[in-house]
User: Fold this.
Amino acid sequence: MHILVTGGAGYIGSHAVVQLQQAGHTVTVLDNLCNSAEEALLRVARITGTAPGFVLGDVRDRQLLDELFADNRFDAVMHFAALKAVGESVRQPLRYFENNVGGTISLCQAMERAGVFRMVFSSSATVYGDPESVPIPETAPMGEPTNPYGRSKRMVEQVLTELPRADERWSVALLRYFNPVGAHESGLIGEDPQDIPNNLVPYIAQVAIGRLEQLSVFGSDYPTGDGTGVRDYIHVDDLVDGHLRALEVIRERPGVQVWNLGTGRGYSVLEMIRAFEQVSGREIPYRLSPRRAGDIAACWADPEKAGRELGWQARHGLERMMADTWRWQSRNPEGYRKG
Ligand code: NAD
Ligand code: UFG
Assistant:
């Protein structure tokens, strides 16, 4: 198939391009590089032996989209392009809604005009809000996401859910990611935050390499085993494998399908620190700090539906997630900027 990958220069998108190409698909990336570097796509080409098509541009640019769809016969779209910094979304809600919701609407309109009706969308476990219980199945009620980023994901899910009601040619996969971590085993591509990382694993990795001094552990009084927050960390390559399987399933099945992509098991912040120390041999200095606003105590997936319907399950355990993160970070201490 010929797949348009929006946000394909980003962390998860670049890993998706690798697997799509390795599975024999043709890939064109549309990315405005607002949170990524073209170098990631050069690295993808080193891994796969084939450079993906690349169009520098914005998913909100209607004219560009029409030209892109006119020039190519896409079979499906994997839509990763979005802004994702939770704290920034609180300060700049309009920018987040415009980019994430507005961008998706422009994209779907262009798809309709071009007669392309298959989309795999990057949603998030954040749509569950503060879950009533864990593990979380897809049937759990949508909660109240605690920030505009999370609300933008919930809004896009609502928009995409309407499409097949109006036109039965649409087939949409809403993939609710838990916490993607890790990197491609080559160490050539990985997560490259442009500022101080918001997320735990990139923060730990930058402490280990000496770019940051100390980790703040946000909250040690949660009702969890050791008092720190518990999340379902999933290797990015397992996550991406779920996308390829979802693509095959929605090819034959119109409508909207929702799948959790998680491992089904949670780890605490302190467990994550220890696991990283073990694979890297580096000490991670940390300090117990107050809770971060908007955080929940514990969140992990019930991945049974994805197992049953996609024939998918996460294969890589915590040690592999950490080893791959460390290989990427230690070989690229400054991310894509050097090396
Ligand atoms: P990322 O920032 O690395 O990748 C997003 C890419 O989209 C970047 O390359 C950016 O330049 C591009 N982009 C953003 N706005 C664009 C626009 N208007 N037009 C064109 N390109 C644009 O983020 P990621 O971690 O790879 O996340 C990919 C997707 O997965 C996002 O939709 C994100 O919300 C979602 N997601 C991520 C996580 C996570 O923890 N990483 C969790 C749940 C969901
Ligand atoms: N944490 C720290 N110190 C840090 C960063 C994080 O202790 O410097 C803790 C958090 O409090 C939390 C855990 O590490 O307990 C994981 O935090 P992340 O920021 O890595 O991930 P979140 O679960 O908060 O957020 C992720 C994605 C969001 C998504 C959300 C809901 O980054 O995009 O999951 O699924 F919205």
Remarks:
- The chain has one domain: 2-337.
- The longest helix spans residues 93-114.
- The mean pLDDT is 97.
- The radius of gyration is 19 Å.
